[in-house]
Design a protein that fits this description.
Elements: E1 4-6, E2 9-11, H1 23-45, H2 47-70, H3 81-91, H4 99-115, H5 127-138, H6 140-143, H7 150-155, H8 164-170, H9 180-185, H10 197-209, H11 216-231, H12 236-241, H13 245-252, H14 263-283, H15 290-308
Helix pairs in contact: 1-2, 1-3, 1-10, 2-3, 2-4, 3-4, 3-5, 4-5, 5-15, 10-13, 11-13, 11-14, 14-15
């Protein structure tokens, strides 16, 4: 339908509600929310963590800029979504990963997952998560070689070691598991942006207060992990603070393009992410399940939307 003039009024189809919310503003808030975790990654793992994240951000922006140039489409790097994808990808990598592998990950995230499907809002899966999984399958050893925190390196000759979830999965030397306080602060091995639970929690609360995200998915995700761990006879706080639960719940499972639209759908989505995460952690061969859980639920999002849509008033079907 078009629009036409009637007197001094412009008549056009809905929606008619206007506000000052823009994609750039939303992405700016996400970058601000990720800043505490970015700073903590440098404190915990050193300058290489900062350089690796910057490599991901710059290469992601360049790939988006280049793709839009080659395909002669309107430039979109100004909306900051490529920068957000870059920093999230960096947060999912070990700080020891070679820089060129991080660039490959940015290519997968931006070109293969995002731009080929039409750009922001058209991707069926979270670009950063998909790129992480591709890197994990392609470069398994570098992607599972974890740098230890600076303060542990200073106290010993070790440079790399297992993550807390890796120790739990192997079932050996459980006495060496870090305390929940170390997990909360982030002084453990792991991907550079997922270890500090307190930094991620601060960022997540900021996004909720700014109304960038609803609490439905994070609460359902984290709550499900808590309950599942209790039922399995394990420490629920360990499973919440260890690995990528906090990063995934607040920053990746809440991606607008790949999560359900309705609140009931978001709750189902979050519960599904939590259940799949714990099933993979406790019964799978890989110690961490957050990325796989979110990717699988991304694929199910259209079906969740169909089942959770409200009935049209007076209609017999959804």
């Amino acid at each position: 339908m078009g629009r036409y003039m009637q007197g001094n009024l412009v008549v056009s189809p809905s929606p008619h509600v206007m506000d000052n919310i823009t994609t750039t503003g939303i992405m700016r808030d996400v970058l601000i929310a990720l800043a505490p975790a970015f700073v903590m990654s440098g404190v915990i793992f050193g300058s290489r963590a900062i350089l690796l994240t910057i490599t991901c951000i710059v290469s992601a922006v360049v790939f988006e800029w280049g793709f839009r140039i080659v395909t002669k489409k309107e430039q979109t790097i100004g909306d900051l979504s490529a920068a957000v994808t870059g920093i999230l990808l960096g947060f999912n990598l070990p700080s020891t990963l070679p820089y060129w592998m991080a660039v490959v990950g940015s290519f997968v995230a931006i070109v293969v997952v995002k731009q080929i499907f039409g750009g922001i809002g058209q991707n069926f899966a979270n670009p950063a998560i998909t790129a992480r999984i591709v890197l994990l399958v392609s470069f398994t050893t570098p992607m599972t070689t974890w740098s230890l925190p600076n303060r542990i390196i200073e106290a010993s000759d070790a440079v790399t070691g297992p993550t807390p979830l890796g120790i739990l999965s192997m079932g050996t030397d459980l006495g060496s598991l870090p305390s929940n306080m170390d997990l909360f602060l982030g002084y453990v091995g792991g991907s550079l942006g997922e270890t500090s639970a307190i930094a991620l929690l601060i960022g997540g609360i900021y996004l909720i207060l700014r109304k960038v995200i609803e609490p439905s998915i994070p609460v359902a995700f984290i709550g499900t992990v808590f309950v599942f761990a209790l039922l399995a006879g394990q420490d629920p706080f360990f499973h919440i603070f260890a690995g990528g639960v906090m990063l995934g719940a607040f920053f990746m499972a809440t991606d607008y393009s790949t999560s359900p639209l309705t609140t009931p759908g978001k709750i189902v989505f979050g519960i599904g992410c939590g259940v799949l995460t714990m099933v993979i952690r406790l019964f799978g061969s890989y110690p961490e399940g957050v990325s796989y859980a979110i990717l699988l639920m991304n694929i199910l999002t259209p079906h969740i939307d169909n089942m959770s849509r409200r009935k049209i008033y007076g209609g017999g079907k959804k």
